[in-house]
Write a structure and sequence with these properties.
- The protein has ten helices and eight strands.
- The protein is an alpha/beta fold.
- The chain has a single domain, classed as NAD(P)-binding Rossmann-like Domain (Rossmann fold, 3-Layer(aba) Sandwich).
- Strands 3-2-1-4-5-6-7-8 form an eight-stranded mixed beta sheet, sandwiched between helices.
- Helix 7 (129-142) links the parallel strand 4 and strand 5 (146-152).
- The N and C termini lie far apart (38 Å).
Protein backbone atom coordinates (compact mmCIF):
# COMPACT_ATOMS: atom_id res chain seq x y z
CA UNK A 1 0.00 0.00 0.00
CA UNK A 2 1.11 3.55 -0.66
CA UNK A 3 0.98 6.39 1.88
CA UNK A 4 -2.46 7.57 0.77
CA UNK A 5 -3.91 4.06 1.16
CA UNK A 6 -2.29 3.66 4.57
CA UNK A 7 -4.06 6.83 5.68
CA UNK A 8 -7.36 6.06 3.96
CA UNK A 9 -7.68 2.59 5.48
CA UNK A 10 -5.99 3.42 8.79
CA UNK A 11 -9.08 2.56 10.84
CA UNK A 12 -9.01 -0.93 9.37
CA UNK A 13 -5.30 -1.24 10.04
CA UNK A 14 -5.93 -0.62 13.74
CA UNK A 15 -8.03 -3.80 13.89
CA UNK A 16 -5.74 -6.76 14.53
CA UNK A 17 -8.16 -9.04 12.68
CA UNK A 18 -7.53 -7.00 9.53
CA UNK A 19 -4.23 -5.08 9.82
CA UNK A 20 -2.07 -4.46 6.74
CA UNK A 21 -2.23 -8.05 5.53
CA UNK A 22 -6.02 -8.15 5.53
CA UNK A 23 -6.33 -4.77 3.83
CA UNK A 24 -3.97 -5.87 1.10
CA UNK A 25 -6.14 -8.93 0.56
CA UNK A 26 -9.11 -6.62 0.02
CA UNK A 27 -7.20 -4.48 -2.44
CA UNK A 28 -6.37 -7.61 -4.46
CA UNK A 29 -9.92 -8.96 -4.35
CA UNK A 30 -12.67 -9.03 -6.97
CA UNK A 31 -16.31 -9.05 -5.82
CA UNK A 32 -19.34 -9.49 -8.05
CA UNK A 33 -22.58 -7.85 -6.90
CA UNK A 34 -25.58 -9.14 -8.81
CA UNK A 35 -28.50 -6.76 -8.48
CA UNK A 36 -28.01 -3.06 -7.80
CA UNK A 37 -31.39 -2.47 -6.20
CA UNK A 38 -32.02 -2.10 -2.48
CA UNK A 39 -29.61 -4.75 -1.22
CA UNK A 40 -26.91 -3.99 -3.77
CA UNK A 41 -27.20 -0.25 -3.11
CA UNK A 42 -26.41 -0.89 0.55
CA UNK A 43 -23.75 -3.59 0.15
CA UNK A 44 -21.66 -2.25 -2.71
CA UNK A 45 -20.77 1.16 -1.21
CA UNK A 46 -19.31 -0.47 1.90
CA UNK A 47 -17.26 -2.82 -0.26
CA UNK A 48 -15.93 0.18 -2.16
CA UNK A 49 -15.28 2.21 0.97
CA UNK A 50 -13.53 -0.76 2.61
CA UNK A 51 -11.10 -0.98 -0.30
CA UNK A 52 -12.16 -4.00 -2.34
CA UNK A 53 -9.92 -3.47 -5.32
CA UNK A 54 -12.26 -4.63 -8.09
CA UNK A 55 -16.05 -4.53 -7.91
CA UNK A 56 -18.31 -5.67 -10.73
CA UNK A 57 -21.97 -4.64 -10.68
CA UNK A 58 -24.42 -6.64 -12.79
CA UNK A 59 -27.99 -5.47 -13.46
CA UNK A 60 -30.18 -5.17 -16.55
CA UNK A 61 -32.83 -2.91 -14.99
CA UNK A 62 -33.31 0.86 -15.09
CA UNK A 63 -33.78 3.22 -12.16
CA UNK A 64 -37.38 4.20 -11.48
CA UNK A 65 -38.86 6.80 -9.14
CA UNK A 66 -40.30 4.08 -6.88
CA UNK A 67 -36.76 2.72 -6.32
CA UNK A 68 -35.57 5.87 -4.58
CA UNK A 69 -37.47 5.03 -1.39
CA UNK A 70 -34.72 2.52 -0.54
CA UNK A 71 -32.08 2.20 -3.30
CA UNK A 72 -29.64 4.78 -1.99
CA UNK A 73 -26.94 4.31 -4.65
CA UNK A 74 -29.27 6.07 -7.10
CA UNK A 75 -30.54 9.65 -7.16
CA UNK A 76 -33.30 11.52 -8.93
CA UNK A 77 -30.81 12.25 -11.71
CA UNK A 78 -30.37 8.48 -12.19
CA UNK A 79 -33.99 7.85 -13.18
CA UNK A 80 -34.06 6.09 -16.55
CA UNK A 81 -30.41 5.06 -16.34
CA UNK A 82 -29.16 1.49 -16.06
CA UNK A 83 -28.73 0.52 -12.39
CA UNK A 84 -25.28 -1.00 -12.89
CA UNK A 85 -24.04 2.19 -14.54
CA UNK A 86 -25.65 4.43 -11.95
CA UNK A 87 -24.25 2.32 -9.11
CA UNK A 88 -20.78 2.24 -10.64
CA UNK A 89 -20.69 6.03 -10.84
CA UNK A 90 -21.71 6.23 -7.19
CA UNK A 91 -18.98 3.79 -6.10
CA UNK A 92 -16.30 5.51 -8.15
CA UNK A 93 -17.21 8.77 -6.44
CA UNK A 94 -16.71 7.09 -3.07
CA UNK A 95 -13.34 5.60 -3.94
CA UNK A 96 -11.44 6.57 -7.08
CA UNK A 97 -8.62 4.20 -6.15
CA UNK A 98 -10.54 1.02 -6.99
CA UNK A 99 -11.74 -0.49 -10.25
CA UNK A 100 -15.52 -0.52 -10.73
CA UNK A 101 -17.05 -2.35 -13.67
CA UNK A 102 -20.70 -2.27 -14.79
CA UNK A 103 -22.36 -5.08 -16.72
CA UNK A 104 -25.70 -4.02 -18.17
CA UNK A 105 -27.16 -7.48 -18.43
CA UNK A 106 -29.31 -10.00 -16.62
CA UNK A 107 -27.41 -12.86 -15.02
CA UNK A 108 -27.26 -15.94 -17.23
CA UNK A 109 -25.31 -19.16 -16.93
CA UNK A 110 -23.01 -18.32 -19.83
CA UNK A 111 -22.36 -14.79 -18.58
CA UNK A 112 -21.50 -16.07 -15.10
CA UNK A 113 -19.23 -18.70 -16.65
CA UNK A 114 -17.29 -15.83 -18.22
CA UNK A 115 -17.14 -13.65 -15.10
CA UNK A 116 -16.80 -16.02 -12.13
CA UNK A 117 -13.32 -17.44 -12.81
CA UNK A 118 -11.82 -14.10 -11.74
CA UNK A 119 -14.25 -13.44 -8.85
CA UNK A 120 -13.45 -14.13 -5.18
CA UNK A 121 -16.94 -13.63 -3.70
CA UNK A 122 -20.43 -13.19 -5.16
CA UNK A 123 -23.18 -11.17 -3.49
CA UNK A 124 -26.67 -12.24 -4.56
CA UNK A 125 -28.77 -9.11 -4.19
CA UNK A 126 -31.54 -10.21 -6.56
CA UNK A 127 -35.23 -10.59 -5.82
CA UNK A 128 -36.51 -13.82 -7.38
CA UNK A 129 -36.01 -17.55 -6.86
CA UNK A 130 -35.12 -18.45 -10.44
CA UNK A 131 -32.19 -16.02 -10.56
CA UNK A 132 -31.02 -17.05 -7.10
CA UNK A 133 -30.95 -20.70 -8.16
CA UNK A 134 -29.03 -19.79 -11.31
CA UNK A 135 -26.45 -17.83 -9.31
CA UNK A 136 -26.14 -20.60 -6.74
CA UNK A 137 -25.56 -23.27 -9.39
CA UNK A 138 -22.89 -21.14 -11.05
CA UNK A 139 -21.14 -20.50 -7.72
CA UNK A 140 -21.14 -24.24 -6.95
CA UNK A 141 -19.78 -24.94 -10.43
CA UNK A 142 -16.92 -22.47 -10.02
CA UNK A 143 -16.37 -23.08 -6.28
CA UNK A 144 -17.03 -19.39 -5.53
CA UNK A 145 -18.33 -18.27 -2.11
CA UNK A 146 -21.83 -16.81 -2.23
CA UNK A 147 -23.35 -14.30 0.18
CA UNK A 148 -27.11 -14.48 -0.24
CA UNK A 149 -29.56 -11.94 1.11
CA UNK A 150 -33.23 -11.22 0.68
CA UNK A 151 -35.71 -8.66 2.00
CA UNK A 152 -39.46 -8.21 1.71
CA UNK A 153 -42.00 -6.23 3.72
CA UNK A 154 -40.40 -6.19 7.23
CA UNK A 155 -38.49 -9.49 6.98
CA UNK A 156 -34.95 -10.19 5.83
CA UNK A 157 -32.61 -13.15 5.76
CA UNK A 158 -28.94 -13.70 5.04
CA UNK A 159 -26.57 -16.65 4.80
CA UNK A 160 -23.23 -17.62 3.29
CA UNK A 161 -22.72 -20.64 1.04
CA UNK A 162 -19.12 -21.65 0.45
CA UNK A 163 -18.57 -24.50 -2.05
CA UNK A 164 -14.91 -24.72 -0.98
CA UNK A 165 -16.10 -26.03 2.38
CA UNK A 166 -17.25 -29.68 2.15
CA UNK A 167 -19.70 -29.18 5.04
CA UNK A 168 -21.32 -26.05 3.62
CA UNK A 169 -24.84 -26.30 2.22
CA UNK A 170 -25.77 -24.44 -0.92
CA UNK A 171 -28.88 -22.36 -1.57
CA UNK A 172 -30.56 -25.36 -3.22
CA UNK A 173 -30.09 -27.46 -0.08
CA UNK A 174 -32.60 -25.19 1.63
CA UNK A 175 -34.84 -24.08 -1.24
CA UNK A 176 -35.02 -26.97 -3.66
CA UNK A 177 -35.01 -25.96 -7.34
CA UNK A 178 -37.37 -28.86 -7.94
CA UNK A 179 -40.09 -27.19 -5.88
CA UNK A 180 -42.15 -24.23 -7.02
CA UNK A 181 -42.32 -21.15 -4.81
CA UNK A 182 -44.71 -18.27 -5.24
CA UNK A 183 -42.79 -15.27 -6.52
CA UNK A 184 -43.56 -12.10 -4.58
CA UNK A 185 -42.09 -8.65 -5.13
CA UNK A 186 -41.71 -5.30 -3.45
CA UNK A 187 -44.01 -3.85 -6.09
CA UNK A 188 -46.90 -5.97 -4.87
CA UNK A 189 -46.02 -6.57 -1.19
CA UNK A 190 -44.12 -3.42 -0.17
CA UNK A 191 -40.86 -3.11 1.73
CA UNK A 192 -39.63 -1.20 4.79
CA UNK A 193 -36.97 1.19 3.52
CA UNK A 194 -34.14 0.57 6.07
CA UNK A 195 -34.56 -3.23 5.84
CA UNK A 196 -32.51 -3.46 2.64
CA UNK A 197 -29.83 -1.34 4.29
CA UNK A 198 -29.64 -3.69 7.27
CA UNK A 199 -29.43 -6.87 5.20
CA UNK A 200 -27.25 -5.34 2.48
CA UNK A 201 -24.62 -4.02 4.88
CA UNK A 202 -24.60 -7.42 6.61
CA UNK A 203 -23.90 -8.95 3.20
CA UNK A 204 -20.96 -6.57 2.79
CA UNK A 205 -19.66 -7.51 6.25
CA UNK A 206 -19.87 -11.22 5.47
CA UNK A 207 -18.09 -10.72 2.15
CA UNK A 208 -15.24 -8.87 3.86
CA UNK A 209 -14.93 -11.66 6.42
CA UNK A 210 -14.75 -14.26 3.65
CA UNK A 211 -12.13 -12.26 1.76
CA UNK A 212 -9.92 -11.51 4.77
CA UNK A 213 -10.55 -14.77 6.60
CA UNK A 214 -11.31 -13.64 10.14
CA UNK A 215 -14.07 -14.55 12.58
CA UNK A 216 -16.93 -16.93 11.86
CA UNK A 217 -19.07 -16.40 8.78
CA UNK A 218 -22.67 -17.52 8.35
CA UNK A 219 -21.76 -20.79 6.63
CA UNK A 220 -24.20 -23.35 8.01
CA UNK A 221 -26.36 -20.65 9.59
CA UNK A 222 -29.10 -18.32 8.42
CA UNK A 223 -30.01 -15.08 10.17
CA UNK A 224 -33.63 -13.97 10.08
CA UNK A 225 -34.31 -10.30 10.79
CA UNK A 226 -37.78 -9.21 11.88
CA UNK A 227 -38.14 -5.48 11.41
CA UNK A 228 -41.46 -5.31 13.26
CA UNK A 229 -40.00 -6.14 16.64
CA UNK A 230 -36.26 -5.80 15.93
CA UNK A 231 -35.68 -9.47 16.58
CA UNK A 232 -32.90 -11.59 15.09
CA UNK A 233 -33.29 -15.36 14.94
CA UNK A 234 -30.67 -17.84 13.82
CA UNK A 235 -31.35 -21.24 12.34
CA UNK A 236 -28.80 -23.94 11.66
CA UNK A 237 -28.74 -25.28 8.12
CA UNK A 238 -26.89 -28.32 6.85
CA UNK A 239 -25.89 -29.73 3.51
CA UNK A 240 -28.41 -31.99 1.82
CA UNK A 241 -26.55 -35.15 0.70
CA UNK A 242 -29.13 -35.56 -2.06
CA UNK A 243 -29.05 -31.94 -3.23
CA UNK A 244 -29.40 -31.84 -7.02
CA UNK A 245 -26.89 -28.99 -7.23
CA UNK A 246 -24.06 -29.49 -4.76
CA UNK A 247 -24.08 -33.21 -3.84
CA UNK A 248 -22.01 -34.26 -6.87
CA UNK A 249 -19.70 -31.28 -6.47
CA UNK A 250 -18.84 -32.40 -2.96
Amino acid sequence: MNDEQLLRYSRHLLLEEIDVEGQEKLLRSHVLVIGVGGLGSAAAPYLAAAGVGHITLMDHDQVELTNLQRQIAHTENSIGKNKADSGAAFLQGLNSGIRVEAIQAKATGSLLDDVLPSVDVVLDCTDNFSTRHLINASCVKHATPLVSGSALRFDGQISVFDPRNPTSPCYACIFSPEESFEEVSCASMGIFSPLVGIIGTMQAAQALQVLIGFGETLVGRMLLWNGRNTQIDEIRISRNPDCPVCSKAH
